[in-house]
Amino acid sequence: MCGIVGYLGSRDAASLLLKGLHRLEYRGYDSAGIALVSPAGKLNVYKCCGKVSNLEEFLDGKDISGTTGIAHTRWATHGVPDNTNAHPHLSQSGRLALVHNGIIENYRILKDALTESGFSFKSDTDSEVLVNLIEYIRDSSGCDLTEAVRLALRKVIGAYAIALVETGNPDRIIAARKSSPLVIGLGKDEYFLCSDAASIIEYTNDFVYVNDEEIAILERGKQLRTVTLDNEEGHIDIRKLELSISQLEKGGYPHFMLKEIHEQPRTINDCIRGRINQATGEVSLTGVLDNMDRFLNARRIIFVACGTSWHASLIGGYLIESLCRIPVDVEYASEFRYRNPVIYKDDIVVAVSQSGETADTLAAVSLACKAGAFVFGICNAVGSSIARATDSGAYIHVGPEIGVASTKAFTGQVTVMAMMALVIGRRKGTVSNEDYDIISRGLLELPEKMKEVLKVSERIADLAKIFTYAHNFIYLGRGYNYPTALEGALKLKEISYIHAEGYPAAEMKHGAIALIDAEMPTVVIATRDHTYDKTVSNIEEIRSRGGRIIAIVEQGDDKVSRIADHCIEVPPVPECLSPIIVSVPLQLLAYYIAVYKGRDVDQPRNLAKSVTVE
Ligand code: F6R
Description:
The chain is an alpha/beta fold and 614 residues long. Helices cover 37% and strands 23% of the residues. The chain folds into three domains: 3-243, Glutamine Phosphoribosylpyrophosphate, subunit 1, domain 1 (4-Layer Sandwich); 246-453, Rossmann fold (3-Layer(aba) Sandwich); 455-603, Rossmann fold, CATH 3.40.50.10490. The strands form four sheets. The chain has an eight-stranded antiparallel β-sheet with strand order 3-2-4-1-10-9-11-14, with helices on one face. The protein has a six-stranded antiparallel β-sheet with strand order 5-6-7-8-12-13. It has a five-stranded parallel β-sheet with strand order 16-15-17-18-19, sandwiched between helices. The radius of gyration is 25 Å and the shape is globular. It starts with a strand and ends in an 18-residue tail after the last helix.
């Protein structure tokens, strides 16, 4: 999704901004651009369709002088991806240049009013309307630029993160945000601006997160200042962010996705470290323990999430219901936020998000907060909007996830949910000591089991070659592994562009079984859980209709191996942790099929890593 980088200091802005744009590439985009204010105050704007490398070529021989600038990667929302719709957008006079993430919902009304006042527009974007609105307000009222930005933003309905520079002033960048991430990195006599702190981490560890409806004024030689849309001086809260650059690089792997799949033994370890006592198996999760009364008295837990995080939430729902005996609903955040849902004050809403910036999940959080529910976040990105908007939470600590298809975040989310269920279940007395021990030991053993399961990598690569031809896939699973089947299908769709559907294995015969033939491979999760025999029967049903079966089975399985075409073995783990292990071969299968099909695995078409628009 769209990305913003900005810089004001004494370094060469162009090269720093381009590097920042490269770091944002993983988020998905279709065009890129840059605005630089030269030392003499000349405003140079360059932009073009396609990759950041196209922009770099385009800049060759151009005036890219200056130590102040803003840059952008665009993921089209209003208007096709082309050179004109790319950001930055200039105001009509050419004096202001603006980059914008998000959507201005009332842009049509604003555009009509500006057109009546004599403005004309080059692009189809909502962003060009905003820069002209700012110009109109400044010129018509004679106020200064910060005030014009404030007054303009008060008229705007929607979500935005913006940065603005102007002709004649290489000493100031104005930025603002509402429901779209924006952070300011503080250096020595220099400012960095970015929609994703990880992209500027090589320059500083000191960050200020711009608050919702706040304007930040970055001025050379002056302290950072923020002002709210109500014109009140903001409070500057500097936070430390520790990340290493190596976490943002491929480390010898051909793709981030493969690196992140292989990182999982370590990321699971990072996720449980300090939370499970190696000797006693006792689990502690501060965010839950600190709010135990709320969890013990919760009328209901509602998970809200999107995509892969929603799949993890389905598993979380099974865990909480089974181990804590608390009723659970699992909601798509996008539906929940617009459905006028019944939310009780003694409900707990759990928002699950890798990026912590997903617009729909953030809106669901804000709705739940307004309704008075206690809101708990399960996020990966430290300091992200959802992490900050929730009452409490637990980070999954799997490090930056760069590949667009989520892998290590999914296994981290399920791991945190299992720990949550154990902590609550123990205090509620709903989980037996025996189950508690089995599951907490199972969690401790996960990193080693992960290493074991990754050994199937080559076998899966071979299997992927056989199935690269397929146009459709079905994924089946039961119980905890029904969401895993959905997740496996989503992975394949996202990066290979092969149509794939996930179903509860038993639901198959209520319709989808009509699709089965020799051209439609079925991936069945058939680990030895309490519905194992039923799943075996489902495999028989597919086989007798000529279907081809890839089964994920436990080591030593001899039943399924006799009837499936291909079996992938995984080590045994407690049933409720099975999705964490089973998802790995499914990630690898999707990965290798996509590679054999020549797809852009890390940046699949049309997708964005962090979906900051609705
Ligand atoms: C799929 C994927 C997406 C995200 C979804 C929510 O591989 O990555 O489906 O899971 O966009 O994103 P977060 O978890 O950042 O809220």
